[in-house]
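Recall the central idea of this unit: under ordinary conditions, the amino acid sequence of a chain determines the structure it adopts. In this exercise we apply that idea directly, starting from the sequence alone.
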Amino acid sequence: MTSAIETIFDAWGVADDAVRAETIAGALAPGATYSDPRSGGRLSGDAIAEYVSALSSNAPGWTAKVKNTSEVNGYLRVRVAFGGQGPDGSMMVQHGTYFADVSDGALTMIAGFVGAEA
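Accordingly, the structure predicted from this sequence is:
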């Protein structure tokens, strides 16, 4: 079974905005928040899918894949690889570290940071 954290990052590679938004909404608990260094603050509701859509349109064809997770007391630490073709035509990969809170299988909070430990 795919976890909510895998579902939300898999959605980054979905080309169809409506399908992406539906997928993201299905992984989130009511009132869930998302933030990362580029989000400009904590996002909630439809703003989360809109933010992912904006990033996806700026990097078409890129995907986000969960590389590993660890858990302590219900909190997740997640390493994510974002990858695709860069502006020069070469393949690129960027990593991020995310912390998430999960309740009853749905994400209630996701906070992302640039970079990742090896």
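The chain has one domain: 4-114.
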